[in-house]
Amino acid sequence: NSVRTTFVSSKGKQALTDYRPLQTFTYEGEPFSLVAVKPLTGRTHQIRAHMAHIGHALVGDRKYEAKKCVKVSWCNRLFLHSYFIRASNAEGETFESIADIPDELVQVISLLNHGESNDLPSLLEPLTLNFYN
């Protein structure tokens, strides 16, 4: 079993990622952000590598977590979710799908939001119309 590490390098293949902060939080004195991310290319671990490279590693990412990133016990998984996906099949037909945010990630958002409920559908819905097109 070999471990493959992906990182940002000027000698590497080009990879582009667009991202937009949706909401910011402060929890136990540390800043966190809920971010929409759109990979424009398809490299291995692209989102994880790019976010860590700019100093904003994903919560729960033990592979790319920046050294300064706070280890958290309140999120027991990688905080990464594919909310919206669009792909084309071999015939060129477009397929789109939306997957609700899993309950365990909704609970993390609520915790970061100090127990306040968050209207995630209204926060995420405009993304499918604007950001991902």
Q: Could you characterize what this model shows?
A:
The chain is α+β, with helices and mostly antiparallel strands. Helix content is 21%, strand content 23%. The chain is built from three helices and four strands. The strands form two sheets. Strands 1-2 form a two-stranded antiparallel sheet. A two-stranded antiparallel sheet has the order 3-4. The longest helix has 10 residues, at 103-112. The protein is globular.
Q: Strand sequence of the main sheet, in spatial order?
A: 1-2
Radius of gyration (Å):
16 Å
Shape by Cα distribution: globular
Number of β-strand runs: 4
Q: Would you identify the regions where 5 or more consecutive residues have pLDDT less than 50? A: none
Mind summarizing the main beta sheet?
2 strands, antiparallel
Beta content comes to 15-25%
Helix content: 10-25%
Structural class: alpha+beta
Count the DSSP helices.
3
End-to-end gap: 39 Å
Q: How do the SSEs run, as a string of H and E?
A: EEHEEHH
The overall pLDDT average reads 81
